[in-house]
Amino acid sequence: MDINAQKNHAFKMMKNTILSIISNILKEKDEIVYTDLNSEKENLIESINDAKKEWLSARNNFDHAVDSDIIDYYIYKIKAYQIRYEYLLKKAKEKGISV
Q: Domain residues of the chain, as ranges?
């Protein structure tokens, strides 16, 4: 009887140890996923800010352009940056990020 009690106690200890290990692994995994999500959000926000700056810079350069070829160049750049900016805003909205 004493041997069965010892086996039961050893089994319970092993079970608790395994559950503790699994719990720690899951906590670490959650922290990694959370960190990755934060990093992804930060990168997206940074990309949105960069796209806006590029778009505004192209508009400013367009305002000061005098040659017709350069004017055409900035028109295309403005449109490209605008599309990129709107795309990034759409992605942020899909992910529930407000800027």
A: 2-94
